[in-house]
Specification:
TIM Barrel, eight-stranded parallel beta sheet
Length: about 270
Amino acid sequence: MPVDSLPRLGLGTYSDDDRDQWRENVRTALDVGFRHVDTAQVYENEQYVGRGIAESEVDREDVWVSTKTVHHDVPPDPEQVPDSVDGCLDRLGVDTVDLLYVHWPSGIYSPEAVLPAFEEAYEAGKTRTVGLSNFTPELLDEAREFLDVPVAAHQVEMHPLLPQEELVAYAREHDHTLVAYSPLGKGAALEVPEVQEVAERHDATPAQVSLAWVLSHDNVAAVPKASSREHMEQNLAAADLELDDEDIDLIDAIDRRHREIDPDHGPWNR
């Protein structure tokens, strides 16, 4: 059956080098069992992600494809947003994506200039849903005032060292999915003693525990990056790892905070 809702575990594809690796990585991920692939214009790998999907034995209709545009100063002019959307589709080699995000609410972003272009893409069938990324609650409120279509998802960094309680609660209140990028904190979450303790208790890896903790929130999905079949299989298995209340309480009680993706233009730095 075709995918009709955002799968809770997907493949993140950000990397700043060797972008053509994602052609094979996506094929491997789909072969392993992933049905959600997340990319972005600024990643400069959409063409490889698209080829991986096209060359996979999995039908396109069975794969949830997410991408993002409006990344700080890309494109340089809000009027070019429709062209950027079309560019994403062209590079991916698809007529429509399942989810199109506003990548950052900074740089050229203004709700009155950018969001109508996303709504037009939705109405034209270029995306099945619209999402936002790296917004604060206040900016989410503002965006919802300018959108007549529902916000389907909000993507932010989230892991045991950055639990994003306020945004998780906001997503639950407004009935959208919070999608966690960097759900392992680029490895930082794996070094936390509490995460390691839970991993030992379950004979699991710290990465699996971190992902299982993220997915223990009913309205949260995750898009961990992985480039080897072994790590993809381990990540996918994390969806079946059930943490008990004691495990979750232990991780929830971690009092250290660490943000990996923290650019000056991040709205939390204003």
